[in-house]
Write a structure and sequence with these properties.
Layout (H helix, E strand, L loop, with lengths): L1 E6 L3 H16 L3 E3 L7 E6 L4 H17 L4 E6 H5 L2 H4 L5 E2 L16 E2 L20 E5 L1 E2 L10 H5 L3 E2 L2 H9 L7 E5 L7 E2 L2 E2 L1 H8 L5 E4 L9 H8 L7 E3 L7 H7 L5 H14 L4 E8 L6 H14 L3 E6 L7 H5 L5 H25 L2 E10 L2 E5 L5 E4 L8 E10 L2 E5 L1
Parallel strand pairs: 1-2, 1-3, 3-4, 4-5, 5-6, 7-10, 10-13, 14-15, 15-16, 19-21
Antiparallel strand pairs: 8-9, 11-12, 17-18, 17-20, 18-19, 20-21
Length: 411
């Protein structure tokens, strides 16, 4: 029997899907992550925006086109939010975000079961890593309760994986995998013995000799002590995905983000003190309901002041159950789309400027596409390189110019 495990959303979902594929293969099934003909499909859904939830529903229809008689199973944030929307589309069995491994014990069942969120980290999914980069899940859940976000309600409270379990998984990562990416819903909240533990974890992982990268982090983690710890980690990749969401203080307050733009700018300055060539990327939500034109102009000015290396831009999406949806009236789609386009233009300029400030880098070759090998530098510049190379190589390059969605580079 063949399974296709299809993933929408974040890197945590990707890790969990890869873990299910690994477990399915252990049980004797054929399993893939590709959208192709299969006897059964497992769809790992996302609910971070209305569009993500729509695409999650749409994935059922896409799977059915390959095999109209296939069994379809659904899990993840969108089904945690509303399991009925997938039952109506013919899903055989639906679970939510908790106890995803238990889906495999319910392959013969019909209907749905939304399990209670655990109070401790569920350490029952382990992903087989065979690519050049290994994603390792270290944390789940979130305690921040930003007013625009459903995730704390769908994923539960923050809980950290036991460090020994993480070290044991990384120990098993094949030699050909050269980079480990630490992922979680709120990586910044990773704890060891109920204390901040991300710095210690990175130090302890350093002995495995693989590049170490953080998927994202929050402003509250940035201080001198943490950055001094990162400097001591030989294999740390100086790429900081530091979530901003808005460059306007009044909007940040209404979003329930616990910092000001001045505090955020101070954190960025501190990062660059210890890592002068760091890539600093961010998320920005455009069109929060209270965002005026003047507020948006403040965001435009702030992202240019900070000089981010890349912007990930999202139009605000109303989610039933969030505080923002209860309190505020949504802006028009026209206003949000117009602001997205303006910020995208700024983002393109900032990205190009950052690329051209970098002269050299070490690129991990991840794939070959046509005449070019593609991969990322430590500070997260995508490079296109020609030469006698193979996937998995780490090669020192000179950056020549901005090219496609990254940089043209030479060995």
């Amino acid at each position: 029997m063949k399974f296709s495990v299809l993933t929408l959303g974040c890197k945590v979902n990707k890790y969990e899907s890869d873990a299910l594929i690994f477990e399915l293969r252990k049980r004797g099934f054929d399993a893939t992550d590709k959208l192709e003909w299969a006897d059964a499909y497992i769809i790992n859904t996302c609910a971070v925006t209305n569009e993500a939830e729509r695409k999650s529903r749409q994935m059922l229809e896409r799977a059915r086109k390959f095999n109209p008689s296939a069994k379809i199973y659904v899990m993840g944030c969108a089904s945690q939010d509303d399991h009925a929307q997938f039952e109506k589309k013919g899903a055989k069995f639906v679970i939510g975000t908790a106890s995803k491994a238990r889906l495999l014990d319910n392959l013969d069942n019909d209907g749905w079961k939304i399990f209670d969120q655990p109070k401790k980290y569920e350490d029952n999914l382990f992903s087989a890593q065979t690519l050049t980069r290994a994603f390792i899940k270290i944390q789940d859940g979130c305690n921040r309760f930003c007013t625009y976000c459903l995730i704390p309600y769908l994923r539960g409270r923050s809980r950290s994986r036991d460090e020994e379990s993480i070290l044991e998984e990384v120990k098993k990562v094949p030699n050909e995998v050269k980079e480990v990416v630490l992922v979680g819903i709120d990586v910044s909240d990773f704890q060891i013995d109920e204390k901040k533990g991300l710095g210690k974890l990175l130090q302890d992982l350093d002995r495995f000799g693989k590049r170490l990268r953080l998927s994202s982090m929050e402003d509250n983690l940035v201080d001198e002590e943490f950055l001094k710890t990162l400097v001591s980690v030989k294999n740390f990749c100086p790429h900081f995905h530091l979530s901003l969401q808005s460059g306007c203080d009044s909007v940040l307050k209404k979003m329930n983000r616990h910092y000001t733009t001045a505090q955020f700018a101070k954190s960025v300055k501190l990062i660059r003190k210890f890592f002068p060539h760091a890539g600093i990327t961010t998320d920005v939500i455009v069109g929060f309901p209270t965002e005026t034109e003047e507020d948006f102009e403040e965001t435009l000015k702030f992202v240019q002041q900070v000089k981010f290396s890349q912007l990930h831009i999202f139009p605000y999406s109303q989610r039933n159950g969030t505080v923002a949806t209860k309190l505020y009236t949504d802006l028009s789609g026209k206003i949000k789309n117009e602001r997205v386009k303006r910020l995208e233009e700024v983002g393109k300029k900032l990205k190009k400027e950052f690329i051209m400030q970098n002269k050299m880098g070490n690129v991990l070759i991840e794939e070959k596409n046509g005449e070019f090998f593609e991969g990322y530098t430590e500070n997260y510049i995508k490079c296109y390189v020609k030469g006698d190379l193979k996937v998995g190589d780490i090669v020192k390059v000179k950056i020549v110019k901005s090219f496609k969605d990254g940089a043209l580079a030479e060995i």
